[in-house]
Amino acid sequence: MASISLRKLRKSYGAATVIHDIDLEIRDKEFVVFVGPSGCGKSTTLRMIAGLAEVSDGELYIGEDLVNDVPSKDRDIAMVFQNYALYPHMTVYKNMAFGLALRKAKPDDVDRKVRDAAAILDIEHLLNRKPKALSGGQRQRVALGRAMVRNPEVFLLDEPLSNLDAKLRGTMRAEITKLHKRLDATFIYVTHDQIEAMTMADRIVVMKDGHILQVDTPQRLYDQPVNMFVAGFIGAPQMNMLPATIRRRETGFVAEFDGTELPLPATLDAARITPYLDREVVLGIRPEDFHEIAPPAVDPDHLAQLSGKVELSELMGAEMHLNMRLGGQDVIARVSPRYAVADDQQVDLVVDLSNLHLFDPETQESILYAPTPSGTQAAA
Amino acid sequence: MIDRHTTSSSALRVSGTEEEEPPVSSTNTNINVAVKQRARPLLSKKQRQRRSNLVAYSFIAPNFLGFVIFTLGPILFAFALAFMHWDGSNPIQFAGLDNFFALFHDSAFQAALWNTLIYTAFSVPLTLAAALGVAVLLNEKIIGRNFFRTAMFFPYVASLVAVAVVWNMLFNPAMGPVNMLLYTAGVDPQSLPGWAADSSWAMVTVIFFGVWKDLGYFMVIYLAGLQGINGDLYEAADLDGASSWQKFWHITVPQLAPTTFFVSVMLTIQSFKVFDQIFMITQGGPGTSTLVLVYHIYNEAFISWDLGYASMVAMVLFLIVLAVTVVQFRFTRED
After folding, report:
1. Which of A21, A128, A232, B257 is the most exposed place for a label (fewest CB within 10 A)?
2. Would the ipTM clear 0.85, i.e. be above it?
3. Using an 8 Å Cβ cutoff, are A3 and A26 in contact?
4. According to CATH, where is 1.10.3720.10 located in chain B?
5. pTM, entire model
6. Structural domain tally of chain A?
7. Which chain B residues are Cβ-neighbours of A81 within 8 angstroms?
8. Over 80: is that where the pLDDT of A128 sits?
């Protein structure tokens, strides 16, 4: 059993608190990704779990055991460092065997485990090389191998792919996901790359300034962000944030933006919207909810038309991003690459409002989606 | 006429680009005039090159001249002198291998050679281990770290004469605090060490002094080496389950290998050349118990005024240091 439980966990350096009493439940064999901008505290949290940073306050459980004061080596964890931290003077084999040898494992056992891990990672031909004779991707594999041989209950990975080139990153992403399935262990993975978070995680923990903002599955995080930061951080290009005013009409609520009334879907919780009647809110619309023609699958009641000027169109191959000026706001729309549009052209776009978001401009919290208590929601 | 002119001026352009010999001589004076006019910028390019070289040489010159006059010259002179007889005032006489054969009949030289080897064999590893140990300790975040670092470095920068006097007082066999302490600790007064005054303890004293004096300098070098080690390695070792001692052996020591190599080469060379502290503490005595090669050279050269023989001993010293250093380089290149 290797569930991990963070209860009111705090990290302070002198008077400066960098992690503010965070709570989180990580289930056994779960793949959890910590994501957030630089300095948000994700690595510090990981280092506390690893036992490399002291816990200032609160409780940290691995399985049933309170491990606040348990040294790293007794926590049954392994870690992959951002710069791999391979021992430069040892061969790949010795790098992988070092931890086992220190634990007085039998040489036969050590050899078998090292070779098994090397086979899985496809680095058998590198066993006699030293780290400096390896490429970045190979070093990454060795670092993974070193973590694997001890067969730990928990793997901690601290931005393991950030030093690799884009193509290799894609490949390794898939390999780490497969490895997780194969090893049947708990993975905690820290990254600032939202693509890694979205593609690999069972659940994502979004952090900012030492606080956990939201813990959810990738899909829910994308569909129901609880505040403007999460909404903006997940998804590329970013969600468009537009100032609007909520009005009540006979047909239901509308959001008035730049003289256009956008009907809010009737499926939204009226009780949540009512307090904001005739008040200014922030309307969040993802770039892919703009369309050049009305999408046939969407209820026509959820569609509205907005007109704006294209300032720059960026063809990405599979899609096109239109940087537009719309009602005095900068908006990015993601449309079909076949859409024939020229820069500086005035265009009418259809907005699909079924996935819209509303935020309180004061608190930046979502009006529609409340944060679920940390770690209690379903994983799948 | 015009035809010839153009041909040779194009030939000139070809030869000019290669910055070779002046262009083909010709019977035609007109062409020669053209050659001169065209060639001028090309030649001056060459001159410019020469001038910039001169500038470079002029920058090197002061240092180079100093090196030739004060280092290279005396070294070569000393090599030559090893095969001469010279007392410093009378004319130099060729001596062939006389000085070399004299080595074999000079018991003081043999004692000095032996003492130098003993001094090196003990002071190098002791200084190295002590410097490493102190550096590791003072690399930790302990209270008063900077004070201790300064204190350890102090003997190295302090005046040797002053610290030797203090040292002689501390280790005075009759009333020095060190022997007082040993006496209080229960050592029999009869068997208290005589330190510098005792022929069986003098070398120990000199070695201790050397270790104590050089420790700080090499500690600083080790500190720099320690700070160059990637901290992640220790964290990785923590997770691998290494104890402090295992981390020291499996990470610190191998990671410091280049530093250790540098320190050991410098220490070895320095130990073979030891002179000043022996001059200050024991003057090579009692008897020949702390007589080392450089001290012997000093005696032969400036006490006996046998400069030729002293140069021969110096050459032997040079060859030993060279051999040891070459072996050290070979040894580490195996890695």
Report:
1. A128
2. no
3. yes
4. 98-333
5. 0.76
6. 2
7. 232, 235-236
8. yes
